[in-house]
Amino acid sequence: MSEEAAAIHAATLCLDTHVDIRWPEPPDPLAEGTMRVDFPKMARGGLNAVVFIAYVPQGKRDAAGHAAAAERAEAMLRHIRGRADGAARRFCATADALEACFAAGAQAVLSAVENGYAMGHDLGAIRRWKALGACYLTLTHDGHNDLADSARPRAPLGDAAEEHGGLSPLGREAVAALNEAGMLVDVSHVSKRGMMQAAELSKTPIVATHTACRALCDHPRGIDDEQLDMLRQVGGLAQITAVPAFLQRVPEGAKNPAGVEAMADHVDHAVTRIGIEHVGLSSDFDGGGGVEGWQNAAESPGLSAALLRRGYGKRELGLLWSGNFLRLLRRAEAAAG
């Protein structure tokens, strides 16, 4: 990495918008360990801020399943908030707090919930998550839930190809409740019909926090050009993520060699299609993410270097890493009831 590129990376607020944690026995983030993201790796890689995820796997949709999912999500949100000491690491629930944290030279901890299954049928859960600091909800994961159809139905759960025709009536109410609470609507795992409906319904721009471009790699977790166009239309955001299978197809059983250049290809496609203001970056570390050149938080400069080689400058790098996401956060905060 050149000195100029290193200096630009160091001056940029680098925010990774989707990082999983191990549960129910998460490791100590203060210690260097086997996880792709911990505070020492973040410091070495100039990764200033991370949205840690309260992830709930899809399970049986009954009262017991929903109750267990809700309990897990809230316990994870409390744990994530507790990772910040208020000094060297600060918990940030707003865009202003995140920028102040970066200006102070501290590491920032944010949180979000992945899979609306954790809500069950209780729309009040969204307000509770917001009070705990969550900045977005990913409406589904793999497998349909009571809010929406998933981009990847799960036959072992009894899923048909489609159940709701996109969003369910409850899912539509959840989008409104997220708007009211000031949380972003994340459509990363949602079916195309559900994503397009959410874009039309939401009073604030939606985000796909960890996705890729189906035009370059036809994976069901990616988004196609029509979906990209919709994101531009509503002022939304596609965060290109470091999951090899989303970036590059390989023969079954073969090792996927996708690296930072493959990520940069997807960034280029999205930027060309919908403009720099609607594209961002994320890793999905410790949830399947990790490409050659960006295998963990310590290697974050490698992604910046790849993008700078493509001709993106300081301003563009800032928008991709955090500026666009911060703009959406502020829109959500301003629209909250």
Written account of the structure:
By secondary structure, the chain is of the alpha/beta class. The protein has one domain (3-335): TIM Barrel (Alpha-Beta Barrel). It is built from twelve helices and nine strands. The protein has helices spanning 3-11, 39-45, 63-82, 95-103, 124-131, 169-181, 192-201, 225-234, 244-247, 260-274, 300-309, 314-335; strands at residues 15-20, 49-55, 89-91, 107-114, 134-138, 184-186, 207-211, 237-240, 279-281. α1 (3-11) crosses α11 (300-309). The mean pLDDT is 98. GO terms for molecular function: metallodipeptidase activity. One of its GO terms (biological process) is proteolysis. It holds the Pfam family Peptidase_M19. This is Membrane dipeptidase.
Q: What helical percentage do the residues reach?
A: 40-55%
User: Treating each run of at least 4 consecutive H or I residues as one helix, how many helices?
Assistant: 12
Radius of gyration: 18 Å
Number of strands: 9
Class from helix and strand fractions:
alpha/beta
- Strand portion, in percent? 5-15%
Low-confidence stretches: none
CATH superfamily grouping: Metal-dependent hydrolases
Indicate the CATH topology: TIM Barrel
Order of helices and strands: HEHEHEHEHEHEHEHEHHEHH
Shape: globular
Kindly report how far apart the N and C termini lie.
46 Å
Instruction: Please give the CATH class.
Output: Alpha Beta
Major β-sheet annotation: 6 strands, parallel
Number of domains: 1
* Global mean pLDDT: 98
Which second-level CATH architecture applies? Answer: Alpha-Beta Barrel
InterPro entries: Metal_Hydrolase, Pept_M19
Protein name: Membrane dipeptidase
Pfam family, one: Peptidase_M19
GO molecular function, one term: metallodipeptidase activity
